[in-house]
Amino acid sequence: MEKKIAKGLLSIKAVFFRPEEPFTWASGIKSPVYCDNRLTLTAPEVRTAIEEGLAEIVKTHYPEAEVLMGTSTAGIAHAAITGHILDMPMGYVRSGAKDHGRQNQIEGRLEPGQKVVVIEDLISTAGSCIEVVNVLREAGAEVLGVASIFTYGMKKGLDRLAEANVKNVSLTNFDVIAEVGAEEGYIKKEDIARLIAFRNNPSDESWIK
Fold first, then answer.
1. Considering 4, 13, 172, 179, which has the largest number of Cβ atoms within 10 A of its Cβ?
2. Structure pTM?
3. Strand, coil or helix: what is 180?
4. 194: CB partners within 8 A, 6+ apart
């Protein structure tokens, strides 16, 4: 499954490697990889594999789940489709409360004590994901964990998830995508070590050389 999803993401350039011409993140960090999982929504074959995979994660790792909650905005569609497959209710969590109407931050019906799985498209430093978990916990939900499409496996993200006592299960990860990228000819085999060096310490730009 990890390799199948990795191949799909690479084929539609939802994950795009460019170690020779790094992308610059908003933080200023130079990155050899660009990730936009929103592209999966316009690629039916890849999208189907992802939603079926997320459904399998929920069934296997969170069998007690009662509600799916997507992260805003990238996780909303994936939560909706996965919820449809599983015949489960879904909603989503806004990045902030609305300034009008009922001023909701959680959209969709959520009762205190309900067991929730968060659907996320991408985890890097895990900050936004943990914010969503905290909002749900404050609303009285029991958050069983997160089901995500792709995770970088960055130390900062892993540490944050552990500190917040949040379990995450991803369909694929940075190491697998780097491996598949080399196998499929998207990058050179010797680039794998450079990619892993970036992932392990994004602020150290020595991998560029």
1. 172
2. 0.93
3. helix
4. 19, 32, 207, 208
